[in-house]
Amino acid sequence: MTQSLQAEPAVDETQVVDTSFARFINVQKSYDGVELVVKDFNLDIQKGQFVTLLGPSGSGKTTCLMMMAGFETPTHGEILLKGEPINDLPPHKRGIGMVFQNYALFPHMSVAENLAFPLEVRHLSKNDIKQKVQRALAMVRLEEFGDRRPAQLSGGQQQRVALARALVFEPELVLMDEPLGALDKNLREEMQYEIKRIHASLGVTMIYVTHDQTEALTMSDRIAVFNDGVVQQLATPEALYEEPENAFVAYFIGENNRLCGDVIDYQSDICRVQLDSGDTVLAKPVAVSEVGARTTLSLRPERVSILADDDASFENCFTARVQEVIYLGDHLRTRLSVCGNDEFILKTPNAEGAAGLRPGQTIRVGWSSSDCRALDA
Amino acid sequence: MSDSSTPPLTTADGVPLKVSLRRAVRRSKLKALLLVSPLLLFLGIAFVMPIFDMLWRSVDNPEVSTTLPRTVSALEDWDGESVPDEPVFAALVEDLQEGQKERNLGLLSSRLNYEKSGMRSAVSRTARRLRTLEPPYRETLIEINDAWGELDTWQLIQRESSPYTLSYYLAAMDRQFSPQGEIVKVPEYLQIHATLFWRTFWMSAVITLATLVLGYPIAFLLANLPLRQSNLLMILVLLPFWTSLLVRTTTWIAILQSQGVLNDVMVALGVIADEARWQLIHNKTGTIIAMTHILLPFMILPLYSVMKTIPPSYMRAARSLGGRPFLCFRRVYFPLTIPGIAAGGILVFILSIGYYITPALVGGQSGRFITNYIAYHMQTSLNWGLAAAIASILLLVVVVFYWIFNRLIGVDKVKLG
């Protein structure tokens, strides 16, 4: 398990059947027979990948993880691991490591005993167990803590023990259910790098569940954005941020200005949209394909520029009224009123001369049509 | 290590901080005390005082020393080798005459009769003839009742002349003082308390074990079922608390007696012959069955309160790490429920060894507990000293168990929900 991390680019999912390591095929799940928590979930995971299931709470992402671990059974569909269906395999025979939200360290066992548990149930020799436990503790830099009880450790240390326990029996797949949710911000960032480092050094495949988009963007090779039981988009972090395919993804990942309107002119690579305020905007059609379609335009706040009065370098230029300026240290957030939208955000780096805007002032802003994506309504 | 040279902290006006703080909280402390004072008073009168009274009664021994003061002092010079001489008898007659006037010879005769049978009639017969007695008394009294001519009668009076005695505790453990003052076992046909203590303890242990075996799965379900189902189950568990204890116990009689529901069904089904009906009640079996049922909630509730705090993720973690379901239970879940098992166990055991009404109703002769004997001595034999001694021993056992439990587990683990 020293194989290095292979970051697969997002390719056409249907062509990689043979090489896929873990696979969800048309998986559906219902708890009460009335509502589907997971609707037709498909996912292919390559060996060594770090895949994140990202979504708001109640979107079905944890359910998918639990189905992979074997604690929930799919109502419909199949789950494959190394090409074998595992629907009927009990959890203890799947050999999948798992890190739980609240760590689930056994409180009546010492740290070393916790780590030894998966090895003891596999009937390893005492010597092997001791060695492997020591190696796992070294991996998470807790060599000195083997004799402590979990309750005597800090949150971050408990987290690392949980990670070591999920890895100590050398599973090929590790599932993590919001493992950093209980940590404070600094510790969380530290642990993100720690997990990333361990993932890279072991080459183990990881499925990670979180509702924190920064965490997902930092750590993942690929991210599946969940909402309402459906995968909204499955892509690399860059693609997800730069090229969201629908309004939910654009709204959920990063900050986003929304302008609503109707398509009045359509070509395959550009379209003209008449906003509800009457203004027209040139945009890149993503989820619209015909004239008359209702659309939401999505525009990242950092892709909007302040223009000089005579500057016409962008297709879209508008007059804006400054509502509010918020100082955030490294950058400034300016709330503008543009095209009838009072919540239009402009993000500018705190460079020299940037802090000149005052509320009430009128300025000109513009953006390129390729940064303005016409998504579903 | 506080530095002694630093001055104590003071408030702005120079009053030491501690004094000021004490003054500030005094009012609220007083108010709190006032609020609980009715309960404290009630507990003092209805709980603490009776316990001390019981402990006092178990060693209290006033009868001989107050009724026979002259005899006791006349016996001081006695060599204890042979029946005493005339002065002692004269003192006895004087004491008995005095006692007859005071009407407390009854207490004396009962007290002496506990230790030596026949003493009741010795005292009462002598008392009846007191008016006509003439000195010298020695021969006459021995003529009236042989007991006065026996050496151990006088040894008994001398031994029990102290205002405190251990003889109730000895009797509670089937022991007595020999005439020579040594502690010996009572004759076999009188040995009853030790058997009853032993039976009380082992049957309580069996009942505790039975409630654990039956209650553990229920507590698990209570802690793990969805809220709606677990609420319903909780009501079923608590239902016995809303039913009279007497009703529950007599129901068991109706079910278990030899012409009862269970036996009738078994005979009708042909499982047992009509003449070989099971004897399930008025014996040990009856006591164990009925008490297991009655004490079951006291096992379930502490178990439940502990199990509720065990997140399901522990078992999931254990499963995902490769443990078979039973192994996960044994290595992970079960050890975490031990505080609940101990709490429920100690509760059921302590309640069980002190249980009275159920063994009395369904226990027959063989299924009785030591508590039934306490009641017997309270109500029938009127030997309150012995009843108090038995009860004090029970109290001691409970305290010892409680102490062990507190050392091993911690008494704060006993919760009922």
Could you characterize what this model shows?
The complex is a heterodimer of chains A (377) and B (417). Chain A is of the alpha+beta class and 377 residues long. Chain A is 22% helix and 34% strand. Chain A has helices spanning 61-69, 111-120, 126-139, 155-167, 185-202, 213-219, 237-242, 247-252, and strands at 20-29, 38-46, 50-54, 76-81, 84-85, 96-99, 173-177, 205-210, 222-227, 230-235, 257-266, 271-275, 280-285, 294-299, 305-307, 316-327, 331-338, 341-349, 362-367, 373-375. A six-stranded mixed β-sheet of chain A has the order 6-7-8-3-9-10, with helices on both faces. A five-stranded mixed barrel of chain A has the order 11-12-13-20-14. Chain A is elongated and about 80 Å long. Residues 1-17 of chain A have low confidence and may be disordered. Chain B has three domains: 1-51; 62-162, no CATH class; 193-413, MetI-like fold (Orthogonal Bundle), CATH 1.10.3720. Chain B contains 19 helices and two strands. Chain B is flat and about 95 Å long. The two termini of chain B are 43 Å apart. The model of chain B has no long low-confidence stretch (mean pLDDT 89). Classes of the chains: A alpha+beta (377), B mainly alpha (417). The interface between A and B is medium-sized, with 27 and 19 residues.
